[in-house]
Amino acid sequence: SRRKQLAEKINRTTNTVYVCTDLNEQDTVFGAVEALRKAIQYTWDKFHPDALFIASSCVSGVIGEDIDGLVEELKDEYPVPVISMHCEGFKSRIWASGFDISDHAVMQGIVKPPKEKRRVINIKNFYESHRPQITKIFNEVFDAEPQFLYLNSTIEELSHLSESLATVCICGTLGTYLGNALEETYGVPYVRTINHSGIAGFEAWLRGIAKAIGKEKEAEAYIEKNRAIYLPQIEEVTKSLHGLRAVIGMGPGFTYEIARVLQEFGIKVEYALAWHYDYKYDNGDVPPALEHLLKTSPKDMKVAVADQQNYEVLNILQRYKPDLYFSRHPGTTVWAIKQGVAAVYVADEYTVFGYEGTLSFAKMIRDTVTNRSFEKNLASRVKLPYTKWWYTQNEDKFIKAEGVR
Description:
Blueprint: H1 2-9, H2 25-30, H3 33-47, E1 52-55, H4 58-62, H5 67-74, E2 82-85, H6 97-109, E3 120-124, H7 131-142, E4 145-149, H8 155-159, E5 166-169, H9 172-186, H10 198-213, H11 216-238, E6 245-250, H12 252-264, E7 268-274, H13 288-296, E8 302-305, H14 310-320, E9 324-327, H15 330-338, E10 342-345, H16 354-370, H17 373-381, H18 388-391, H19 395-401
Helix pairs in contact: 6-9, 10-11, 10-12, 10-16, 11-16, 12-13, 14-15
């Protein structure tokens, strides 16, 4: 639904189709290459796509199905790119490796060598909800058009990624593979900065892009103009946020990015939870968001990796009793509210985009902590499955003692 709504806004039609071979027990024992071949032919005959991506699953990976061999056979049979993608989750056990897999498929099967440079900046994101704002900024400051990836991109557009001025991403975890691949293979600069969230993030993001394409003067003029408009307003709102205490539970990129923004607001981050931890990116460096926190954060900020099952989150919230819980996953947000903790669901990657977004985010936090009647009423009427005995446990020691880890 979201894809269709966004496509309609820019007068495009999304035609992405998923076809599954539906492996059964017999296929698992004897193989299903022929069934896959028929599914590919059916897909071509019915939909005539601009590209065919053949993605393996855990089952096809376990039985060793030769998807690559079939793709090599079929490449000359169809007038469009046919590309294999290895998506067996058990190989990495980290969901974010799927970003790298999709980038690899695009680089190997779609992107062509450059013929000429274009005034285009690649921007890797999820749902491009801020397409109008970003297009306006790129036009005004960088004299360039944004190429949003991958939602609503055409195969033709993807084939020209090597001709872009630079590549930037809303989250290093999402875009590090594509950015580094385009830079190493075709010389397209990859802008490695903290992301656009908050004042420090947005200004570093703008300056990083500007430096890559030679537009530093224009970027500084934009920053100076908007600082005069928004900084006084942001400072006024955040006065009421100083001293608040927070726990964060998000993905590995946004946990560290939002932690930085909260610290800008004067909020103490008691505990930061991330799904996984990248100690190095593809270029061998520490992720910029984490590097920034290592340099600027108080030394007593606690960080945990993968402790985001509900029973772990509730134990942590019970122990630290924060004023606010921030999550990018609505399931845990609901449980925090049942516990009586005011929660902020940061769903959109552009929630804290730029000066205006930072101001709106600060106001949202202020409104959340000002009126806590919903949390209090819900907590007083809901009986949670956890006892007082459970809340006294150290969740790490308890789990290890039970042999789960």
